[in-house]
Amino acid sequence: MNDTMFSRRRLLGAGAALGGLALTGCATTSSGPAIGRVVVVGGGFGGATAARYLKMWGGNVDVTLVERNAAFVSCPISNLVLGGYKQIGELTRGYDGLKALGVKLVQGEVTAIDAAAKRVKLADGSTLAYDRLVVSPGVDFMTEAVGGLAAPAAQAKFLHAWKAGAQTVALRQQIEAMKDGGVFAISIPKVPYRCPPGPYERACVVASYLQAAKPKSKVLVLDANPEIQSKKALFEKAFKDRYGGILEYRPNAELKEVDVASGTAKLEFEDVKADVLNLIPPQRAGDLAKNAGLVNVNNRWVGVNWLSMESTALPGVHVLGDATFPAPTMPKSGHMANQHAKVAAAAIIQLLKGEAVNATPVVMNTCYSFVSGKDVIHVASVHQYNAEQKTFLPVQGSGGVSAAANQVEGRYALSWADNIWADSLALP
What we know:
- This protein has helices at 3-18, 45-58, 79-82, 96-101, 152-157, 166-177, 198-213, 232-242, 287-291, 334-352, 407-425; strands at residues 36-41, 61-67, 72-73, 92-93, 104-107, 110-114, 119-122, 127-129, 132-135, 139-141, 183-188, 218-223, 247-250, 257-259, 264-266, 271-273, 276-279, 283-285, 295-297, 301-302, 304-305, 310-311, 317-319, 362-370, 376-386, 391-394, 400-401.
- By secondary structure, the protein is α/β, with parallel strands linked by helices.
- It has two domains: 3-141 and 284-361 and 417-425, FAD/NAD(P)-binding domain, CATH 3.50.50; 143-281, FAD/NAD(P)-binding domain (3-Layer(bba) Sandwich), CATH 3.50.50.60.
- Helix 1 runs antiparallel to helix 10 (334-352), helix 2 (45-58) packs parallel to helix 10 and helix 7 packs parallel to helix 8 (232-242).
């Protein structure tokens, strides 16, 4: 193993351990012709991080990032917008930091992948050639799984706001317009879905707002799962102690059908009417992954080689983040997408050089959840690649959860957000 390879592997480990911290000291000086062309599709936590670290660690790797939106909008922290504690602009960042590193930015949408020809096609008809392709498509929604939800009128009325942006703002407006004494209902799909604790955090944050501004109102949590899926004891405590008179939690309450005219969510044994229905549909890998033939697990998710994040369906295509079929106990989170990206970036550089990839990667995750406008709980985990099982496994004794909600962790949560945005987007 040469010194360059050793250094990069050590830095990958450091990046995994430090999570949101920027590793600016490991940039490689670009010189000579490009060792390869890498196209990255999707500028979220996964894709943006991959583009950054390919340039930092690869130096003379030619990197193009294709993203349909002009700016990055963070899903983590976006529930605070629903409670009126943040504005969407506070979660929005640009891509200038990546441009300054030498990443080529293309605002557009990839519509097809030709893995045999190593080309992607964009909506405007143009194509981009690559030696390695990184796809971070996030999730899209299985609206057809809920009767009536595929209709445009239903989707316009029953917002999911599960991709931060315009729907987040619109759902906040619905909550603000709701009368005092109204009901806000949130429907949670069966796992797996993006951000396991996210719906429970949302219920708390909305309840916190209603408690102060519309105290006669109610929050109804309709969970298709038999129990709370993350930080169970801590959310149960918040539901009972903070919002006992406002919030009702119902497990095994799977959404079957919606009625637009009456504003009704139909469950198996009852119908639920609410003034605001926040319906989060079941999820799968993003449309690009599905249409490109990358989806090969349960007809929903992308299988990958965890040493490189390379797709098990299409060679030369690396898939990151929520679109992947997760390793045991591995959450679908922005932080984990950031970690996937670093594993992929290091591996791609080695592959372009004809060298072996790191055989012992380690990744970690930290997830903060607000139970009010200021009080926060967290869960953390570390995952080590297991060569025998060919997947990441949780490291015994690592990570953990908060003892109790507190405002100190609230400050940590906001700092975490600033740090991981900076890390992913190469911000100062």
